[in-house]
Amino acid sequence: MTILPTITGPADVKKLTLEECDQLAREVRQCIIDTVSHQGGHLASNLGIVDLTIALHRSFDSPRDQMVFDVGHQVYTHKLLTGRLDMFKTLRSYHGMSGFPCQAESEHDLFDTGHSSTSISMALGLARARDLKGGDYHVVAIVGDGALTGGECYEAMNDAGQGHTRLIVILNDNEMSISKNVGALSKYFKNLRASASWYGGKKRIKARMQKIPLIGRPLAKVSENIMNMVKSVTTGGELFEALGFRYLGPFDGNNIEEMSRVFEEAKAITDMPVLIHIVTIKGNGYDLAETQPERFHGIAPFRVETGLKRGLKPSKSAANCAGAILVRMASEDEHILAVTAAMSTGTGLSEFAKYFPDRFFDVGIAEQHAVSLCAGMARGGFKPFFAVYATFFQRAYDQMIHDVCLQNLPVCILADHAGLVGDDGKTHHGVFITPMCLAMPNLIYLQPRDSEELEQTMRAVLHANRPSVIAYPKEQIEPYASDIHGRSFEIGHWQMLRDGGHIAILATGRMTKHAVEASDILRDEGIEAAVIDCCSLKPMDIEMLRELDARKLPMVTVEEGQLQGGMGSEIARLCAEQGIQIPRLMMGIGDHFVTHGAMPLILAECGLMPDQIATRIRTCLADTDAGAKPDPEQVRKQTA
Ligand SMILES: Cc1ncc(C[n+]2csc(CCOP(=O)(O)OP(=O)(O)O)c2C)c(N)n1
């Protein structure tokens, strides 16, 4: 009999015997492999944490007891055990299940998360709230060794350790972030694992005993119990003890029985926070993911037998394009350095690391530190490029203003995954980057329209010798046909890709291509639209705005980001300042978080597909006489 379909909630997990739990773990793994192979998703992290999650739901009583999974990319088992099996096949699809914790899905998810290193702070907050209310339930944070490279974890532990707050933190140590974990702490965890020689010994002895015919398995069980008793009285983890935590570990996190026993031990500690150090195997149960955990960390749909991608060849990534350009530039200029915050492959820096290992720095999941580090490197005479997903760069807002822009230092942020990102959804869309950057004095902020302009912008900021951010989407945009020749990008100058006498579409980044396609549609209807590539968002091209005004061309703007404080808003502000007509229509993302799903679907939800842009322009032109001064009420309605 299969067990997984009978699990409607944590209460059903509690009824299972240990043998049945092991069977459930196998079924959950199979379900995750099957589903991710069709839907894509975070495979290796989820396979590693199956046993731990089953043990958590055996020992704790969610939702009364509260669990916070750090990042949240590893909650698939948690979802399956909390009544979401039916929905699971829709993982990461439009209007389907989120790939991350999601309050709208279940009372067992307390926060919608996707960014790293926040779980201990959140759990401490929950624990303090519990204590203020006089509650007696448990609060548990589950945090990976990768996430534990993020500084916020230490701010939280430092705070937790000063009181006697009852809190359980589980450190899930699989020696991996997305890539191999980095830094002094990862060495410290390695030493902890090694110094607890019982751990490796235990595994070896158990494996050998199990091979003895007939009596092997029972014998292994007895000896494991004895070794576990010995373990209970050993100590270690001075770092955590110094922070005011009781340290328990390391334990085998892929052993449900062992986890259940440790959790009971931790539950009994009520006068201080506890950190349980467990060791798991990333990708556990699927050979390919075990041997290549980085490739299977986050993966597009694939064939289970071969691990090869399903379907069409995936589109090229802009990150790889930027990485290749940076390698070329670095071979010409030895002052160029590259920095990543635990995302060397994702941000396209693997080749750079290979060619220039001395000029490449992986700082762990520490975006704030990365930006201040770059400030120091720049002050020291170098030209650092920090490649980071736009959404994670949000972390370093203050460091960018205070440590880079205020000092006017030549640090370049390569803000990858800018705009909408598709399946990862609301925690990962890089749609706040423009409002962030437009507010920063001294900054050059660029959004190239394609791979060719990406290279031009990277070279331009190198010579500008000032703080800069270059934002580009996840997918590489190949150069496309336009009426301009020479294609010479200049900071502070916009390019008219196509001329037209009825309306001017001002667009940026990937939306420039959509604007060209919209103008094709409109051209067939007799509407001539000029398309302007506004790559240089800071500084903007005031001359071009004056020229459009002089020609009495009504303006509309299109951007793949928040309208509040975005490109359209800034153009309107500049126009008002210059006494020229403001845009009639601003297209972009309204005042809400955008869901997950395939890119065309979510772009359509935001009204940003070429045909939708054309329709809105047509309506706008029909509503107002072309060339007439805009009616503010009309502008308000159109942009609502
Ligand atoms: C602030 C931030 N930076 C980067 C990431 C990208 N990211 C997602 S998971 C991950 C690695 C997490 O490693 P770990 O916590 O050890 O979990 P594991 O996947 O190994 O189980 C990274 C870098 C993120 N989610 N948030």
Briefly characterize the structure.
With 640 residues, the chain is of the alpha/beta class.
Helix content: 40-55%
Total beta strands: 17
Q: Number of folding domains? A: 3
CATH architecture of the largest domain: 3-Layer(aba) Sandwich
What binds here, in terms of ligands, is: thiamine diphosphate
CATH domain fold name of the largest domain: Rossmann fold
Low-confidence regions: 229-234, 626-632
CATH structural class of the largest domain = Alpha Beta
Instruction: Name the CATH superfamily classification of the largest domain.
Output: Thiamin diphosphate (ThDP)-binding fold, Pyr/PP domains
Overall pLDDT, averaged?
Answer: 92
Quaternary structure state of the chains depicted: single chain
* Broad shape: globular
Report on this model:
With 640 residues, the protein is of the alpha/beta class. The chain folds into 3 domains: 4-196 and 234-291, Thiamin diphosphate (ThDP)-binding fold, Pyr/PP domains (Rossmann fold); 318-471, 3-Layer(aba) Sandwich (Rossmann fold); 496-639, 3-Layer(aba) Sandwich (Rossmann fold). The protein is built from 27 helices and 17 strands. The strands form 3 sheets. The chain has a 7-stranded mixed beta sheet with strand order 7-6-8-9-11-10-15, with helices on both faces. Helix 4 crosses helix 13 and helix 15 packs across helix 21. Residues 229-234 and 626-632 have low confidence and may be disordered. The chain binds thiamine diphosphate (TPP). The site of thiamine diphosphate has 25 residues, from helix 3.
